[in-house]
Amino acid sequence: MSKSTNIVWHDSKVMKEDRQKLNKHKSAVLWFTGLSGSGKSTISVELEKKLHELGVHTYRLDGDNVRHGLNNNLGFSPEDRTENIRRIGEVSKLMADAGLVTLTAFISPYREDRDNVRAILDEDEFVEVYVKCSVEACEERDPKGLYKKARAGEIKGFTGIDAPYEEPINPEVTVETDKQTLEESVDTIVTYLKEKGYL
User: Fold this and answer.
1) Structural domains in the chain?
2) Bridge partner residues of 89 (DSSP)
3) Which of 38, 77, 91, 162 could cross-link 34 (Cys pair, CB 3.0–4.6 Å)?
4) DSSP assignment, residue 121?
């Protein structure tokens, strides 16, 4: 619930459609979701590079990066995770209005939180990308050493170990990083974007 009072929305004379026309592509929010270590950040970095080469105007929002600034007052309780995703959803909505293809890489373990972001965006702007990878493969990679800490009891409420991860039911795109190469994963997403007319 908003605590702000006496506020009025000011419309612009340049609209989202105008920005999209200038950019020569549609707006979209590519929402990468998956376990820690599944490859969300890695894929989003490579995909952004590929899209940039194709002349697509992009911006990437990464979980750890956003927690350095905008969300540095949030922890990892279920409530804080929900607020983290709510804020990212609102930022993503602004990015979509700016005519960008926004890539977000967040565990976002709760289905309801992801659905809430989908609901605030225009139809077809939210593209859920499920970065599917087994807990075993993620734990084997463990790029940040977080699984090891979670198993040792040093981290409580760690997704996939002692906190839930709710898999997407009908994601627009699924990449399986324990079966596909990085290049194959990126190509799968680019193909989807081209086939659906985003690019």
Assistant:
1) 26-195 (3.40.50.300)
2) none
3) 38
4) S
- Spatial neighbors of 177 by CB under 8 A, at least 6 apart, are 34, 38, 39, 43, 131, 132, 133, 137, 185
Per the DSSP assignment, residues forming a β-bridge with 11 are none
- CA angle, corner 142, sides to 64 and 189, nearest 5? 65
For the ranges 20-24, 75-79, 183-187, the maximum mean pLDDT occurs at: 183-187
Catalytic residue among 36, 92, 108, 185: 108
62-100: pLDDT as tens digits? 877 888 888 889 988 889 888 989 999 999 999 999 999
Alpha-carbon span 85 to 69, nearest angstrom: 14
Amino acid at 172: E
Distance (Å, whole) CA 174 – CA 131: 6
Where on the phi/psi map is residue 108: left (φ > 0), alpha (ψ -120 to 50), or beta?
Answer: left
Q: Per-residue pLDDT for 170 more than 80? A: yes
Return the bridge partners of 59, or none. 102
Of residues 141, 117, 112, the one with CA closest to residue 61: 117
Q: How far is CA 97 from the centre of its chain?
A: 17
Q: Would you say the C-alpha torsion 177, 178, 179, 183 has a positive or negative sign?
A: positive
User: Could you confirm whether 108 is annotated as catalytic?
Assistant: yes
Running DSSP on this structure, what letter comes out for residue 122? P
